[in-house]
Amino acid sequence: MTTITNGQLVPGATPAAACGPEHVEEPVQYDAILLASFGGPEGQDDVIPFLRNVTRGRGIPDERLEEVAHHYRAFGGVSPINEQNRELKAAIEAELAKRGIDLPVLWGNRNWDPYLRDALAEAKERGFTKLIAVATSAYSSYSSCRQYREDFHIALDETGLMGEIFIDKVRQFFDHPGFVAPFVEGTRQGLADVAAQGIDPVTETRVLFSTHSIPSADAERSGPKERGFDENGAYAAQHNAVAEVVMQGLETPWDLVYQSRSGPPSQPWLEPDINDRIEELAAEGVKAVVIVPLGFVSDHMEVKWDLDTEALETAKEHGMFAVRTQTPGVHDAYVAGLVDLVLERVNGTPKAERPALTPLGPWYDVCRPGCCENVRLGFKPALAGLAP
Fold first, then answer.
1. How far apart are CA 28 and CA 25, in angstroms?
2. Sequence-separated (6 or more) residues with CB below 8 Å from residue 241
3. What is the pLDDT of residue 262?
4. SS (H, E, C) 105-174
5. Which residue, among 244, 218, 222, 217, has the nearest Cα to 234 in the 3D structure?
6. Residues 271 and 207 in one domain
C-alpha cells in the first residue's frame, strides 16, 4: 500500500513528479543528467569481483562465476561497456553544447567503478540537488528498469543524501525515433549485405531480432498489469512492436529471439534461444540470417560474445551467411534522442507532443504501481515510480 507523506507518493522525486503522474507535464529545472549503466570489469583481476557484484545476494560460488568469467577473459578481462559509456557521455555533452544547453553529465554504474554512489557524491560536491537519470536500457522489465530504480534508492541511502538529492528518470525509450533509427538503418544494410552474397533477402533469409532473455515469471510481470499484456508482459510486447516498425516496407520474414540466459534449467526463461532458432532455420533451408541486437544500446559483452562469437559461429557451422547489425552506440540520432528525452522533462512536454513510433508509447515518466516485480526478491524501495 502506498504511504502518503506530505503529498509525496514517489520517493526521492522532484516536486513535479512526487504525486506520481503518468507523464510529468510541468517544467523542471534540473541541475545535471545522471547517466546510469551496468558497469563492467577493466582488467583480469576485476572479473570475479565484478561478477560477485552482479550476483550479490544469490550465494553463487566463485567456481560457478568462473564459468561466465571466460567471456570477459577472452577479451583480456575488459568489458567494452565502460569505454562505450565514456564515449556516450562525451557525445551527450557535445550534443548539449551544440544546442547551447548548460547541463552537466554525471556517470555512475550499478556494478563497477564509477558507482552510482560516486556520481551522487560528485553531485553533492558540486551542489547539484535535482538529477534527471538516463539509464542505458530501453525496455520494461525488472533488470532493465526497476533494478535501476532500486539502485538509485540504495545509492541515496548509502550516501545519506535521501531528501537532499532528488532523482527523476526519463521514460523507457524503446520506441523513441532516436533509438529505433539505428536499427532501421542497420537492418536495411544487413539485407543489402545478404543480397550482395547472391542470396535472396526475402525467400532465403530471416531477420532475427535478439534481446536478453529473462525469467518467464519476471517477463509476465513487466509493465503495468492494467495494460493487459499477455504472459510475456510488456517486455516482449515492446520488442515485437519495435521490430514491426523496423520491418515496415520490408518483406523478409522475422522472429524475436532471446540470448544470454543465465538461470537454472528448471526455471523457465523466454525462448527461443537464438542459437536454437538458427539451427531450426538451417534445417528449413534458410541460407542467411540478419541478426539485429534490438535489446541492446551498445556493443557490450552480451553482443560481442553471445552474438559475435556464439551466434555467428552457430550460423557458420550450419553453412549459413550471417551478419550482425549495429547497436545505437553513439549514433547521431540516438544521442540526439537521449537529449530530447531529457528536454521532455526539462520543458514539461505534454504527452501528445512526445514522439513514439509504436501504439504502446510514449511510455510513463513515473512507473506505475507494481510495475516490473522481481518474483524472487519481491518489491524493494525504488525511485521514479509509485509503490510498491
1. 9
2. 174, 175, 358, 359, 360
3. 85
4. EEEEECCCCCEHHHHHHHHHHHCCCEEEEEECCCCCCHHHHHHHHHHHHHHHHHHCCECCEEEEECCCCC
5. 222
6. yes
> Residues 266-278: what's their mean pLDDT?
97
Q: Compute the distance between CA of residue 59 and CA of residue 352 in angstroms, rounded to an integer.
A: 47
- Answering whether pTM is above 0.90, one says yes
Contact between 274 and 303 under an 8 Å Cβ cutoff? The reply is no
206, part of any domain: yes
CA distance 310 to 223: 31
CA distances from 106 to 35, 95, 233, 359 (A): 6, 15, 32, 33
Which among 110, 79, 134 is positioned nearest to 118, based on CA atoms? 110
Residues 6 or more apart in contact with residue 128 via CB below 8 angstroms: 31, 32, 104, 106, 165
Q: Which three cell numbers stand for residue 10?
A: 514517489
CB neighbourhood size of 17 (10 A): 26
Residues 151 and 285 in one domain: no
At 311, the pLDDT band (50, 70, 90 cuts) reads very high
Beta pairing partners, 135: 36
- Average pLDDT rounded to a whole number, residues 183-190: 98
Specify the range with the lowest mean pLDDT, choosing from 31-35, 63-67, 195-199, 374-378: 63-67
Least confident of 6-10, 102-106, 118-122, 147-151: 6-10
Q: Is residue 23 a part of any domain in this protein? A: yes
Structural domain of 243: 177-324
pLDDT of residue 122: 98
Average pLDDT over residues 337-345: 98
